[in-house]
Design goal:
With about 375 residues, this protein is an alpha/beta fold. The chain has two domains: about 80 residues; about 290 residues, 3-Layer(aba) Sandwich (Rossmann fold). It contains 14 helices and eight strands. Strand 7, helix 13 and strand 8 form a beta-alpha-beta unit. Helix 6 crosses helix 7. It is globular, with a radius of gyration of 28 Å.
Length: about 375
């Protein structure tokens, strides 16, 4: 039994015990008040006695049921708060290849948030550019699944001003995430692993599938993956492209240009909130991440490259769903047509009338994760 479930049942037991005590106290008071009626029991007749006793029993049962429902709800509400901070110790054996000389990561930690439940599914979230596991905290608090939200190396808020945490490249980041996923699967071998990536986090899932294709031995077994606004080419990478060019010693000029690109009030609000978050981080690491993802997607890339990587990912997962925001609607139909020509099911993709950052809304993630877990067939024709 998971810690939140055990805590919920313990709370429930305490509430029910207290309720039973209260009900018996009330019954005792009633007996004291109606002692005379009890003495005249025989005179009242057996039918009236049965009715009265039955009424008291019904009252007792009703009180217990109401108390149980309230206690269960309260216990569940208490368990929602049990999101804990955890870390994965980085060791040399987590890497199949030699690390770049500047990647000083061995002996340090990869941070993540976790909320265990009794669910058979372990849902792991990968955040967008410069973001962290905390961006999924609200979803984790209401999800029934066992959830983990990863903060990529060097982007933990408490380490943002630590000069010892120098930038590392995309491949090293992918190897670290792969090591953590294998660690989580060893801890929970009976749970099905589901990956959810937002923006650059979705790109990371694609990069991970390539890493596992190159090094299949020991790769984690992934049940399903949900990609929210993955990047296709440079035309979909306004934020990443701007951050990649940012002068971290004087970042204001590029950040202001990003705000000026907003076309709606909602987009303006979301971009401002996003920039507030990333400017608290190590901007050198954020810029390195942006540069690597721009190079990975390619300035002149077409949808064919993206779809080829999707096909590779399908070789590593049983279920896959890719959701695009409204910013992709001009490219969506052509991409789906190309996907069909490659033998990919058009149901693999969807576009919604939401801004990029609105894809992180709790109700969107809850619905899409639930549909992905319920799906039974592979996303290929």
């Amino acid at each position: 039994m998971s810690p939140p479930e055990a805590d919920r049942r313990a709370r429930l037991g305490r509430y029910v015990s207290a309720a039973i005590g209260v009900v018996f106290a009330v019954l005792g008071l009633l007996v004291d008040l109606y002692t005379e009626q009890a003495r005249n029991f025989v005179d009242t007749g057996w039918l009236q006695a049965v009715v009265r006793v039955g009424a008291l029993v019904a009252l007792f049962v009703l009180a217990c049921v109401v108390t149980w429902l309230y206690a269960d709800r309260s216990a569940r509400a208490g368990s929602q708060k049990l999101i804990t901070s955890a870390s994965f110790d980085i060791r040399n054996q987590d890497f199949a290849d030699d690390l770049p000389s500047e990647a000083a990561v061995v002996g340090r930690k990869l941070r993540y948030l976790e909320r265990p439940t009794a669910s058979p599914h372990l849902v792991v979230f990968l955040p967008g550019l410069g973001l962290d596991g905390g961006d999924f905290r609200h979803f984790m608090a209401v999800a029934t699944e066992h959830t983990v939200a990863i903060t990529l190396f060097g982007l933990n808020l408490k380490e943002a001003r630590n000069d010892r945490y120098g930038p590392i490249d995309l491949t090293t980041q992918a190897q670290l995430v792969s090591g953590l996923l294998k660690h989580l699967q060893r801890r929970h071998p009976r749970k099905q692993l589901v990956l959810v990536g937002f923006s650059v986090g979705a790109d990371m899932i694609i990069r991970l599938s390539e890493l596992w294709h190159e090094r299949p031995t020991g790769a984690p077994k992934v049940r399903a993956a949900l990609l929210l606004d993955p990047n296709i080419n440079l035309s979909t990478m306004n934020i990443s492209s701007a951050v990649a060019k940012m002068d971290t010693a004087a970042p204001l000029a590029e950040l202001k240009r990003l705000v000026q690109q907003a076309e709606t009030l909602t987009e303006f609000q979301n971009v401002c909130e996003y920039l507030f978050k990333i400017t608290q981080k190590n901007l050198n690491q954020v810029r390195q991440q942006a540069r690597d993802i721009v190079a990975y997607c390619g300035a002149n890339a077409t949808s064919d490259q993206f779809l080829g990587r999707v096909q590779n990912l399908l070789g590593r997962v049983t279920q896959l769903k890719i959701i695009f925001s409204v910013h992709y609607e001009q490219q969506f139909n052509e991409m789906v047509a190309n996907a069909r020509a490659k033998g990919l099911s058009p149901t693999l993709f969807d576009v919604v009338g939401l801004d990029h950052f609105q894809l992180l809304d709790d109700d969107v993630v809850l619905e899409e994760v639930a549909k992905l877990i319920r799906a039974k067939t592979r996303s290929v024709d």
